[in-house]
């Protein structure tokens, strides 16, 4: 499994629905689990800054990560970005390979 970081910025309309935030988040998570059952979430964070949420998860490939981002976009996200994360130890091993 590969590790991915999902950064999500909600649309202005969705951001105004604070009282519905928990249910909206639950609906999103249920859709991800139904459409991408192989995805394993590691951590969820709310952010105060450029993005509203950061999720760390494992998925088998980039296409599955793309589906997670698309599910976010179809559920009120204005912007959704999935990044591939390399474990730091492996990153250091890669640097040794290019020296």
Describe the structure.
With 99 residues, the protein is an alpha+beta fold. It is 42% helix and 32% strand. The chain contains four helices and four strands. A four-stranded antiparallel beta sheet has the order 2-3-1-4. A hairpin with a 6-residue loop joins strand 2 and strand 3. The radius of gyration is 15 Å and the shape is elongated. The mean pLDDT is 92.
What is the strand content? 25-35%
Provide the structure class: alpha+beta
Helix content: 40-55%
Q: Cα-atom Rg, whole angstroms?
A: 15 Å
**Number of DSSP strands?**
4
Helix tally equals: 4
Walk across the major sheet and give the strand order: 2-3-1-4
Beginning-to-end CA distance, first to last residue: 27 Å
Major β-sheet, in short?
4 strands, antiparallel
Shape: elongated
């Amino acid at each position: 499994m590969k590790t991915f970081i999902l950064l999500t910025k909600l649309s202005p309309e969705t951001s105004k629905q604070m009282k519905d935030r928990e249910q909206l988040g639950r609906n999103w998570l249920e859709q991800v689990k139904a459409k991408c059952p192989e995805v394993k979430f590691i951590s969820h964070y709310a952010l105060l800054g450029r993005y509203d949420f950061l999720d760390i998860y494992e998925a088998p490939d980039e296409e599955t990560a793309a589906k997670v981002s698309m599910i976010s976009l179809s559920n009120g996200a204005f912007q959704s970005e999935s990044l591939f994360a390399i474990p730091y130890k492996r990153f250091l091993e890669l640097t040794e390979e290019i020296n």
